[in-house]
Design goal:
about 200 residues, alpha/beta, Rossmann fold, 7-stranded mixed sheet, binds glutamine
């Protein structure tokens, strides 16, 4: 069943093509966002995994920082994975000097909470609100959610650390659902977009 929404995927760096493919496989229009005008007509935005410090710098040079911030604070639904979760957070522990985040969801995140690249792992995760058994989640230099404000639901944990959260309009995961074949987390986000 095609979803009648247009998803904009921030395409400055990282795993953006995989998100575009995932949403297209679900029958949505998905477009790459590199410049302010690419935001026109999008019903939601996705911030992919990659390197949050690099994306933060590219956001400034692309001119996307202000328009994106305005749209997010006006209530544009957003989905952030890994570095994307860091970019949507309110507080970033382990940020570099001048690193930007949008504060679209009231969480404090800790960068690289599970160690470096060599400590990447996969984990069968129970995610609240996602039916059909555990989700095989891929963690690569993943952040964790150290604190979630009121109004934020923590929906998955690994060893007591928060790794996914949502509000009425924003979904974040510390892992990379776009790197596997299972589309349930993307589908869950489309549910949030249609409710919004
Ligand atoms: N550690 C990276 C950062 O801080 C995120 C890693 C990822 O997105 N896989 O941006």
């Amino acid at each position: 069943m095609p979803h009648d929404v247009k998803i904009g995927v921030l395409a400055l760096q990282g795993a953006f093509r995989e998100h575009v493919d995932a949403f297209r496989r679900l029958g949505c229009e998905a477009t790459e966002v590199r410049l302010p005008q690419d935001l026109e007509g999008v019903d939601a935005v996705v911030m992919p995994g990659g390197e949050s410090t690099t994306v933060s710098k590219l956001l400034a040079t692309s001119g996307l920082c202000e328009p994106l911030s305005d749209r997010l604070h006006a209530g544009l639904p957003a989905f952030g994975t890994c570095a994307g979760m860091i970019l949507l957070a309110n507080v970033v522990e382990g940020a570099i000097a001048g690193q930007r985040s949008f504060g679209a969801i009231d969480i404090a995140v800790t960068r690289n909470a599970f160690g470096s690249q060599v400590h990447s792992f996969e984990h069968d995760l129970e995610i609240e609100g996602i039916e059909g058994g555990p989700f095989r989640a891929i963690f690569i230099r993943a952040p964790s959610i150290a604190h979630a404000g009121s109004g934020v639901e923590l929906i998955a944990r690994v060893g007591g650390q928060g790794v996914a959260a949502r509000t009425g309009k924003v979904l974040v995961t510390a892992f990379h659902p776009e790197l596997g074949r299972d589309l349930r987390v993307h589908e869950h986000f489309l549910g949030i977009v249609s409710e919004a």
